[in-house]
Amino acid sequence: MAKEKFDRSKEHANIGTIGHVDHGKTTLTAAIATVLA
């Protein structure tokens, strides 16, 4: 069986965060991912 070509129509972004615990890294990353989705 021939595989169907994967269509990459969305842009990709790698997000790295550095910070202390409970300083909102997860919230910030989720907000950025929501805007880019």
Topology summary:
Layout: H1 25-36
Protein name: Tr-type G domain-containing protein
Pfam family, one: GTP_EFTU
InterPro entries: P-loop_NTPase, T_Tr_GTP-bd_dom
Describe this entry's structure for a reader.
The protein has one helix at residues 25-36. 32% of the residues lie in helices and 0% in strands. The protein is elongated, with a radius of gyration of 16 Å. It is mainly alpha-helical and 37 residues long.
Which properties best describe this structure?
P-loop_NTPase, T_Tr_GTP-bd_dom, 37 residues, GTPase activity, GTP binding, 1 helix, Tr-type G domain-containing protein, mainly alpha
Q: Would you kindly provide a brief summary of this structure?
A:
The protein is mainly α and 37 residues long.
Low-pLDDT segments, ≥5 res: none
**Element order, helices and strands?**
H
What is the distance, rounded to the nearest whole angstrom, between the alpha carbons of the first and last residues? 32 Å
Tell the overall outline.
elongated
Helical fraction:
25-40%
What's the number of extended β-strand segments? 0
CA-atom Rg in angstroms: 16 Å
Mean pLDDT comes to 85
What's the main sheet like?
Answer: none
Number of helices: 1
Beta-strand portion reads under 5%
Class derived from helix and strand content: mainly alpha
InterPro entries: P-loop_NTPase, T_Tr_GTP-bd_dom
GO molecular function: GTP binding; GTPase activity
Domain Tr-type G: 10-35
Protein name: Tr-type G domain-containing protein
